[in-house]
Amino acid sequence: MEKLTNVKEKLKGLNYKVYSLHMIEPKFEDLTEGSLVCKEHGIEFIYLNKDKIITVLKLKYDDITNIEIDNILVNIFMSGGKVYHLNQLRQNLDEILADFNNEYLTIEDEQAIHILKDYRILKNNNILKITGVEMDENNMSKSIQYKVNLDDVNNIMEDYWGQEDGFREVFITANGKNMAIWCN
Predict the structure, then answer these.
(1) Predicted local distance difference test score (pLDDT) of residue 157
(2) In angstroms, rounded to a whole number, what is the distance separating the alpha carbons of residues 61 and 7?
(3) Per-chain mean pLDDT for the chain
């Protein structure tokens, strides 16, 4: 009973979130994107299959031997040897950037690349303000400030390689302009 309670507790925070789903053992299979739902006796991954038919992958709690959660990455190990890898698909930019906590933050837009130290990310209404200090070629520091109107963002793609690697990146399209923000 303790194992079942532990599995349910670990999965509770993942309920109703959207993920890309892959089977990585016994062989890699790129499955799909869908929502994870925690039920009484197991989890269900609800998605549209290739034919656009609603499909449900059911995993019983009793069959789950281990769960590894690394922020937005989840590995679910099954007693039959299958391992499912889930990558959360987030579309909330300020939530994504809240996970950026390295010493330096790099921002690349269509004009330049800026490496910021002592950066801060603040949200005021629907404006996300990123401020920091950048050293120029003469070792002089200058303040940099970016403002992103969240209402103008129409595409977000997050990339995270896991805590061990520490690399995080997010690509943003707003008003037809592209921006990348990363730290490692």
Answers:
(1) 92
(2) 7
(3) 85
Instruction: Note the residue count of the chain.
Output: 184
Look up residue 181 and give its two tokens: 């923000």
The tens digit of pLDDT for each residue in 57-94 reads 899 998 999 999 998 999 999 999 999 999 999 988 88
Q: What is the pTM of this model?
A: 0.79
Q: Which residue has the tokens 């896991």?
A: 162
User: How many other CB atoms sit within 10 Å of the CB of residue 123?
Assistant: 15
Taken in order 29, 34, 38, 39, is the CA torsion positive or negative?
negative
Measured at the CA of 155, the angle between CA 97 and CA 20, to 5 degrees, comes to 80
Model confidence at 96: pLDDT above 70 = yes
Residues forming beta bridges with residue 54, ordered by sequence position = 48
Nearest residue to 82 (alpha-carbon basis) of 30, 43, 26, 42: 26
Q: In what order do the strands lie in the sheet with 42-48?
A: 54-60, 42-48, 29-38, 18-25, 83-88, 73-78, 64-70
Domains of the chain: 2-88 (2.30.29.30), 93-183 (2.30.29)
